[in-house]
Amino acid sequence: MPSLAGLFFWMNSKTENIKKLVISKPLKLDCGKTINNFPLAYETYGKLNENKDNAVLVFHALTGDQFVTGTNPITNKEGWWVTAVGPGKAIDTNKYFVICANVIGGCMGSLGPRDINPETKQPYGLDFPVITIKDMVRAQETLLEYLGIKKLLCATGGSMGGMQLLQFCATFPDKTFSAIPIACSSSHSAQNIALNELARQAIMADPVWDKGKYFLKNVQPKNGLAVARMVGHISYLSEKGMQEKFGRKLQEKADYEFSFNADFQVESYLRHQGYAFVERFDANSVLYISRAMDYFDLSKQFKGGLVEAFKTQKTKFLIISFSSDWLYTTKENKDIVIALNSSGADVSFSEIITDKGHDSFLLNVPEFLKTLKSFIDSMHDKFKNEKRI
Amino acid sequence: MKKEFKVITELIPNNTRVLDVGCGDGSLMNLLEKEKNIEVRGLELNQDNVQQCIHKGLPVIQGNAETELHQFPDQSFDYVVLSQTLQAFYNPEKVLKELLRIGKSVIISIPNFGYWKVRTKLLFFGKMPVTKTLPNTWYNTPNLHMCTIKDLFNFCDEKNINIKKVVGVNEDHTSLIKRSNLEIKNLFSKLGIFLIG
Fold first, then answer.
1. Tell me, what's the ipTM?
2. Inter-chain contact A350–B63, Cβ cutoff 8 Å?
3. pLDDT at A1 (0 to 100)
4. What Cα–Cα distance (Å) separates residue A369 from each residue in A70, A320, A364?
5. Each residue of A28-70: pLDDT tens digit?
6. B74 at the A interface (CB within 8 A)?
7. What is the pLDDT of residue A304?
8. Can you say whether residue A187 is alpha, beta or left, with left for phi > 0 and alpha for psi between -120 and 50 degrees?
């Protein structure tokens, strides 16, 4: 077994090609603790033009990272939003400068529970402070400062990315010209908290997890983490989509095996997704990030609720929901529209009809990608004009 | 009908806030924004139309006017426009009430069932009229509550809704409609445009 120092050397060497900004400015977290001199890992695509009117900030979801498109240098797999971002894509990197940062609490180079706690000289584990969506967003705002971007053309994100975006707009009302929150909510619902709790319980029930101290033995609670991911995957699909994709089809066999092996294709799919996830994600990060999502309630932060949160908005919004998404339903998305309307903000809304569930925003759903492209391109024209004036 | 949008544009002062209910592909919103620097918002059911509005950079909310007007706060717009769709609602009275709640003023246009060609078709041929402004047949028309300019006039009176102006449109010709000339205008206007509230 490698020594502890050896383990973290390995981690560092694995992530040494990652762009990192070390933020020295202390960040007082919502929980009361302060972090400083912490790394924020990020990636950019395309070029920032001279007028600085083409910057697009992408916020990633629970299990995402900063590698939006192209090849993820750590996993050697495609970036998570390659369907929407890239040369000639809806968010065209030939035209736009796309920025994405790994959230704090994550495990792709930004400060997270597997980093060394300066006080104990050991990895944080559960000593890592509980973070919130607002903490994540405030850390990322520092990155914009560093990149010299006063105002973004657009900011976007789906799922937890959309939640970060709503927080970003409420906390920094004049930092982006336009915003596209996708398939998200202004406060996590009971159902979503319950599903997150299921994922956390799966991790914590794995004896390897060992109260978050698994890193001392250089292991990962694989079984628990895989089950957590399976829960997620079920919630990202729709009943109809799942039935169409898998039905009762058997996995490379003619009949039942009369065992508990993966007889059905859907079982095999879940197992594959679960164990593939273990290779690229840290169990404690899932605990911390999912907790941040559960604590998210934008209306709670403002006296007078959600309407008050958007009171000073100049940002032009486009809210997008998917008809078969039961995790972040059209109704929840519409509640955001109603609040924005009530505060007099400039808001558009579109519900994309699809069977692909919550996952739709990551998939090739032409109607969605067309809407995304139309909006960003038209906003770019408006932003250029505004800057000229 | 382009003339209709021209009349509506003339009815609305510069630099106001307008909600276009059933805004279609955004043609009217575009006109209002460009010519009068009006802050526009649209509500539209059809996905393709929503797409077109977004493409033009016009703010549009996808939704059904019959059931989703409640999302707009009281008196939050200077004008609410409803172009040729009042007759297509299940409950036009309820919708109209909502429009008056949201807008300080409301502009409604209706295809006039009292137009002489419509009347003669029904009178002489005994068939439901099919015309340029009413192109559908009885079994596939979205128009559930056809009315005439006179009907809407009387309706406003009954409900104590203040009528500020009524314009009759026949092709390129427009004329003011008042109580005094209502009978004749109701016969010769294809379209009625009401400014109420």
1. 0.90
2. no
3. 35
4. 18, 11, 8
5. 999 999 999 999 999 999 999 999 999 999 999 999 999 999 9
6. no
7. 78
8. beta
Is A299 near chain B, with CB under 8 Å?
A: no
The pLDDT of residue A312: 85
User: Residue A12 — pLDDT band, cuts 50, 70, 90?
Assistant: very low
To test the contact with chain B by mutation, choose from A349, A376, A383, A386 the residue with the greatest count of B C-beta atoms within 10 A, namely A349
Q: How many domains does chain B have?
A: 1
Chain position carrying tokens 């209306």: A299
Which among B55, B62, B63 has CB closest to A374?
A: B55
Task: Tell me the average pLDDT across A283-300.
Answer: 97
Partnered with residue A181 across adjacent β-strands are: A157
Do residue A348 and residue B60 have CB atoms under 8 angstroms apart?
yes
Domain layout of chain A by residue ranges: 4-188+298-388
Q: What is the CATH number of the domain that holds B17?
A: 3.40.50.150
Contact B59 A378 (CB under 8 A): no
Residue B109: inside a domain: yes
Whether residue B108 lies inside any domain: the answer is yes
Q: CA-nearest residue of chain B to A351? A: B62
Give the C-alpha separation, B100 to A189, whole Å. Answer: 34
The topology under which CATH files domain A4-188+298-388 is: Rossmann fold (3.40.50)
Using the Cβ of B19 and the Cβ atoms of chain A, whether some distance falls under 8 Å is answered with: no
Residue B6: domain span: 2-113+144-196
Q: Which of A279, A288, A276 is nearest to A111 (CA)?
A: A288
Instruction: Please give the share of chain B, as a percent, with pLDDT higher than 70.
Output: 99
Query: 10 Å Cβ neighbour count for A346?
Result: 17
